[in-house]
Amino acid sequence: MDEVLPEEFDVILIGTGLPESVLSGALSRIGKNVLHVDSNEYYGGSWASFNIKTFDKLMSETQMHQEDNSNPVNLEALISEDEEFLLMSASQQNLSNCQSYCYLSKQPDWVVATNVVEPNVVAEPDEVEISDDKDSPVDVATTAPTMVQKHSDTEDLSCRDVDFEERNNSDNDNEKPGVSDKQSGDPAKEKSTDNDSRNGQVDAFNNATSEEKLENASDQSSQADLPHKETPLFPFYEKFYENWRRFNLDLSPKVMFSRGQLVELLIQSNVCRYLEFRNVTRTLTVLSGENRLQPVPCSRADVFKSKFVTVVEKRILMRFLTLCANFEQHPQEYEAYKDRPFQDFLQSKHLSTKVQHFIIHSIAMVSEQTSTMEGLHATQKFLKSLGRYGSSHAFLCPMYGVGELPQAFSRLSAVFGGTFCLRRRVIGIVADKTSRAVKGVIDSTGQKIKCQHLVLDESHLPDICRSGFKREVSRAIYVTDKSVSPSETEEVSLITLPPVGNFPLYRVIEAGPLCCLSPNNYYVVHALTKPSCVDENAIVDLKETFHSAEKTMFAGTAAELEIANNNESDKQKPAVLWAAYFNMMSCGVNNDSLPGNVYVMSSPGFELGFDKAMNEARRTFEIICPDEEFLPRAPEPEEIVFDDEGYKSENNGNSRENPNEQPEAGNGDYMETEEDLQEEEEPDVQGLIDQEQGVGDHVSDGNGDNA
Amino acid sequence: MHGRVKVKTSAEQQEEKRKERQSKLKIFRKVINAFFNKVSKEEYDNDGLEITKQILASNSDYSSMWNYRKKCFANSEKPKSEIEAMLNSELTFIESCLRNNPKSYGCWHQRCFVLLKLKTPDWKRELQLCNLFLQFDDRNFHCWDYRRFVCSHSNHPLKDEIDYTNKLIESNFSNYSSWHYRSKLLPEVYPDSSVGNKIAERKLLEELELVQNAFFTDPNDQSAWFYHKWLLGRGHPMQSILSLHVSRFPSTLTCTLRKPIKEEDCQQALVRVNGTVISGKWKPHSSACYMNTWTFTPHEKIGTGLISVSCQVDGVETQITMEIDDNEALCCAKNTIETFCESSSDAKLLVLEEELNSCRELNELEPDNKWVVLTLVFLMKAIDPIRFFSEMKELLKSLCIIDSKRSCYYQDLHSKYAVENWIICADLQSRKADLRNKGITRLCHVEFLVGLTHLDLSHNKLKALGSTFLVFPWLQELKADDNEITEIDGLKALPSLITLSLNSNALSSVELLSCLSTCPNLQHVSLKSNPVSSCEKDYFKNFPFRLTL
Amino acid sequence: MGTIVKDVTFKNDIPKGFLSDTHVSYISTYGKDKDDYEYCMTEYLRLSGIYWGLTTLDLLNNLDKLDKAEIISFVVSCQTDEGGFSPSPRHDCSILYTLSAIQVLCTYDQLDAIDVNKAIKYIASLQNEDGSFCGDVWGEVDTRFSFCAVASLALVGRLWTDCPINTKHCVEFIVSCMNFDGGFGCRPGSETHSGQVYCCVGALSILHELHHIDADLLGWWLCERQLPSGGLNGRPEKLPDVCYSWWVLSSLAVIGKMHWIDQESLKSFIIASQDPETGGIADRPGDMVDPFHTLFGVAGLSLMGQTNLKKINPVFCMPQYVIDRLAINVEILTI
């Protein structure tokens, strides 16, 4: 880690979160000389995804880096008269109130006897790797990028194939150990990330286990006097952790609007070739006064199917959605309500309260008080995304977790020559006293690196540039034993739990093995809500905060249910096997004290999609290089091959093997398809289809009735 | 710059295409000749299979080549196992052709041919293929037909096919092919126990709900409405004898049926006087081979008493009986609402009433949606055409404006309902019909009116008195004043017609009237205020009847 | 969210009037260049192509533009030993081209140029037990072939006098292909398709068996084929196409419901589908023209009373004068 970097870069980026990574990719792509550092030992910052052991560790530590200041840097030597130095805070910690719990009981001895083998199988390779990365963790991390530079192309090709094949297996073959290690493409970078993180994981394992012992203490007693069961209700603690590597738990779970900026960017830049996606297959909500999740009819097909609305409601809903799809053309419809609450507008359109609920909370995903204009735009945004990939789906989510996204863009950056440095801490920013423009940074090794532009993620801000921490998002993550609303096929669900009484609104994303977020038979449930109190120091029991969400979705924790000993009440609902709670912090920027040419990327925030982050990256790019194109297509000839590759992954979620093969998708859900196919650079496909409709039909009669 | 993919100009492409085509043509001709060589030498070998592949791969309509391949499999002396292998590889080849042209008759038939040749055809695989191609295009009727072929040969349970259509309809209900398939499957799987319905009522009601969901979700999709009409509407009306006319001097018996029949069927009809069958001959009322009205001349005179005619047409026995003590008498079968629409159980009526109400709501939401309006009419017709008539009339009027392209259809539809309602209520035995001011554009169901002596069609919108008028043997007075009549070629050889009134119509030329001179008893024709009235008087002088102009 | 009506909109540069002369030159020059790609590629349906072109020119009062002798000898050269006709010499014969051959010869009043009895035997040999017809010896069954058989026999005058086929079963099969919408498909169970409707209605009309049809129901389905552009499609939710202006319109004419569509807008659709440069008519405005669509466009206009066109017979799609000369009377419903 301590080896010497070049003296100067065009741009230095600190933090490998999504906006920084996109920016890094965009800059390298057009030939800027980029240094991208992260004090963490993993990629993604607040956007990262972790396996479950690492997550336990993360939760158990109050601070991520007790980075020693053992060898204090001699600043005097580095900073000249006309320069000022802004010290960065020692900690980039932006999580608070972290807790994680495992509700599973330890394996009694009589079981151990029967299956000792498996844990070892998994354990084995780790130890090996740990030992050898103890020798030279540094090299791996730093040599990685250079290596990439040398043979980026071939590197690319080969690993893409491996990568892809691997994933396909991983879908059906669940016993494959460490499949998640294969998640990001570039093996060089790859090795670096997971050696580093694995290194962490092992400590984590030790801490965690001791941790858990405490956590479970309360349960132990109860389990002690449980009747000796041949088939316990839930897997044992050890069994659960066997597949620890196959969990990918997001710090900041989000979904992509199929027509959101991120998707367009992934296609345009062809970064999608590094990624795979799944459709969000359903939208659920709870109607006020009810305690049962029910599907929200979002698309034409959903509405047709829905059993929860009357035929007349169906029509009114469809009429309304059709209006929203291109409301600009019908100002007379909404003029009067422009600035009034969206709900008033919905009422004026005779939408039943139920349908209003669907639109406000699950389709527009706004609140009753949102202005009509905002509501209309939100609804339209949803409808635009609908049907692009699968007639009744509007959202995509990346397989292996959101953490894949920053990595994919970082990889693009590396492929185009960006230099990457993990576990490299920048201790401060050097700026010109008079012009106040940034001149460079000084890292913990005492090296001074020059740059024209500096990009920071919020959490790396120097203290004096912060306007103070506040809680931005309260999070809960649950691992459960079944879906919150089981169905024949595995679903990926987006759930909105509107505010009830003094409980807040929750947004929930549930996914499982299908998205490679968990091993088979487990589901991961991400819940987000706005913190009840934003003061960073206040003590809040997040379990309390999420109480009503938990009551709606779950039967209870595994431990509770063991005691309750399968009472029939909520047999349908899943049990919580593992849970984690934390707040994500955000600090405002104090622009006055911020040097020029320094750009701050904000934290993931509460937003469900990625547009905010994308905008930030794009805007910053346009400032740094005004006349350049933002992430144009990569030039390699073999792109053509990749192209339809990217494609497949694009459409991974829907059963169709190739999106071209949706001639009628137009009426599947609606006008988009044609346009779509063109975007996918297959304009002639649509043509071909039309032809078939015409010709096909008459050639038939053609030969026929030459009467 | 930055390696954006270069797009060719269409001009370049065209030139390229032309060049490509020239070379293509050369090759094409070479292959074709090679092919016909094979044929003339009657060589059916792998070589020939390869040659034909080259053409068929791109042009799968070249039927002679498919035939050649068929011959190869048929004639080949090769061992069975080898043939089996050839056939299997043919399936692969056909599939690749279908990918290029999924609507090729040749390909699909070749596949049927091969499947039937195979000793152990893998029908499951074929069904998979259908699923694939229907996923690609769920309206490809070739593939649908092939699917039915596969199902019938593999005894694939029809119930599964219903589930398949469910699946398709759920993912996209504007899929006419799927609805069509249901209309074939349901009567098979859920046959109707009672009379009237097409499918078991329980299922019928389910279907009504399903299709209602479809057209409420999207009222602009035709498929659902057509299917709904089918669920409502009756099949073909049952055959029945509508009327029997007996005259004793001369002894003739004239019988009119709902549906036209052929002579051989008619000769089977039995005539009984007071229970005893009497012999005689049936004659069609006119030259056409199918007729509704037939006249029976008995060998002996008909006396008074009970007269009955019974005949059996396509398995349906129908009969009519009447008392005769006079010289002449007409007996008409009683008509009810059920004469013109399906009888509905209370359960069904309840559902229809509910649907009517939700459609009314829908109509308020979208007053200009023609499908909703038309379906309102169909529902009312099915529930009670008499009670709702005035409302139906208004709705049809509005349709003529909303959907002007088809206004004539709506007018004709109204005319039909108007006449039907009149028939239901009228006393046909009185033999006088007053159909004035009905706003009708056509006169349908004439078979019910055969017995008439007086018919008044004045103040309507008739455009022509066509061949349908040939069926009135006893019609003495026909009034059709104040219509839009331009043609009267149907008024030929009406045996009993005495007075004809066609005032205020659009008859333009004297030639149009020529047919009238073939009516033997016609005495007076009134043509006031027609364009023709203004013609020189002497144009009309050689007509055998008195003209009022 | 809703159904988008599949239809076309006219550009401004569409032709206004009926371009009779350009069509004459298009057809009369078509196939002059024996090396033309399109021409060579359509060898497998040449005989039908000739029927399309010849009928078009006759309707346009320009039959003499074609070399009668050449055509007749070509037709003769297409009759195979089986008695049927192939699209071109050396190809296999089928009932499709057998009808085309007979139509061409009837128009030229030259039936005796071929062995009619052999052709009749061939047609009769293709009927199955259930009354259906195969297209050729290989056994593909389709109502199109029923029409070809019935029409051919009517044209050669063998339908009513010693008829070689079982017309009763023939009718029964056709009726067994009727659907919930009153229309017809290729085989029992097949979805309704305008082309097939034309064939079945035509066959029943020639056989005077139209009473099997629910004219109001079928007429409704047919008139719903008309789209806002005025053009007609072949099935619900499909694009309009000039050839359907014929198959739908003529079917409507036979069941006496032609007034159920807006003929004016249909005319303008066909007019708009003309190509002023090359002549000829395409499937829809702006597309490439071909003889097939040219015939059905012209035929449609003739049926709608376009002036200076010969009157067309809706069932045979041949000039009415030919049908009169053969003293064939088809059944046409009036209400």
Q: What does this 3D model show about the protein?
A:
The complex is a heterotrimer of chains A (707), B (549) and C (335). Chain A is α/β, with parallel strands linked by helices and 707 residues long. Chain A has a domain at 281-398 and 679-707: Guanine Nucleotide Dissociation Inhibitor, domain 1, CATH 1.10.405. Chain A is 40% helix and 18% strand. In chain A, strands 5, 9, 10, 16, 17, 18, 19, 20 and 21 form a nine-stranded mixed sheet that branches. Chain A starts with 7 loop residues before the first strand and ends with a helix. In chain A, 52% of the residues are buried. With 549 residues, chain B is an alpha/beta fold. Chain B folds into four domains: 21-195, Alpha Horseshoe (Serine Threonine Protein Phosphatase 5, Tetratricopeptide repeat), CATH 1.25.40.120; 241-332, Sandwich (Immunoglobulin-like); 339-415, Serine Threonine Protein Phosphatase 5, Tetratricopeptide repeat (Alpha Horseshoe); 429-548, Leucine-rich repeat, LRR (right-handed beta-alpha superhelix) (Alpha-Beta Horseshoe). Chain B is built from 16 helices and 15 strands. Chain B has helices spanning 10-41, 46-56, 63-75, 80-100, 105-117, 123-136, 141-154, 158-171, 176-189, 201-217, 222-232, 263-267, 346-365, 370-383, 389-402, 407-425, and strands at residues 241-248, 251-261, 270-273, 276-278, 280-284, 291-298, 305-313, 316-324, 328-332, 432-434, 454-456, 477-479, 499-501, 524-526, 546-548. In chain B, strand 3 and strand 4 form a beta hairpin. Mean pLDDT of chain B is 90; it is low at 1-8. Chain C is built from 14 helices and two strands. Chain C has a two-stranded antiparallel ribbon with strand order 1-2. The model of chain C has no long low-confidence stretch (mean pLDDT 95). The A-C interface holds A 299-300, 318, 321-322, 325, 383, 666-667, 669-671, 690, 693-695, 697-698, 700-707 and C 1-4, 6, 45, 48, 51-52, 96-97, 99-100, 103, 142, 144, 147-148, 151, 193-196, 198-199, 202, 234-235, 237-239, 241, 243-244, 247, 283-284, 287, 292-293, 316-317.
Present the secondary structure layout:
The complex is a heterotrimer of chains A (707), B (549) and C (335).
Chain A lengths: L7 E7 L3 H12 L4 E5 L10 E2 L1 H9 L14 H4 L4 E5 L7 E8 L6 H6 L2 H19 L1 H14 L1 H21 L14 H38 L12 H6 L6 E2 L5 E2 L3 H9 L7 E3 L2 E5 L6 E3 L4 H6 L5 H15 L5 H4 L7 H7 L4 H11 L8 H14 L9 E4 L5 H12 L3 E4 L3 E7 L5 E6 L4 E10 L8 E15 L12 E5 L8 E6 L11 E7 L12 H4 L1 H7 L2 E2 H7 L10 E15 L8 E4 L9 H14 L14 H12 L14 H4 L3 H8 L3 H22 L3
Parallel strand pairs in A: 1-2, 1-15, 2-12, 9-17, 15-22, 20-21
Antiparallel strand pairs in A: 3-6, 4-13, 5-21, 7-11, 8-11, 9-10, 13-14, 14-15, 16-19, 16-21, 17-18, 18-19
Chain B lengths: L9 H32 L4 H11 L6 H13 L4 H21 L4 H13 L5 H14 L4 H14 L3 H14 L4 H14 L11 H17 L4 H11 L8 E8 L2 E11 L1 H5 L2 E4 L2 E3 L1 E5 L6 E8 L6 E9 L2 E9 L3 E5 L13 H20 L4 H14 L5 H14 L4 H19 L6 E3 L19 E3 L20 E3 L19 E3 L22 E3 L19 E3 L1
Chain C lengths: L19 H10 L7 H5 L4 H14 L8 H10 L17 H13 L8 H10 L17 H13 L11 H10 L17 H13 L8 H9 L18 H13 L8 H10 L18 H13 L8 E2 L4 E2 H6 L10
Antiparallel strand pairs in C: 1-2
Helix pairs in contact in C: 1-3, 3-5, 3-13, 5-7, 7-9, 9-11, 11-13
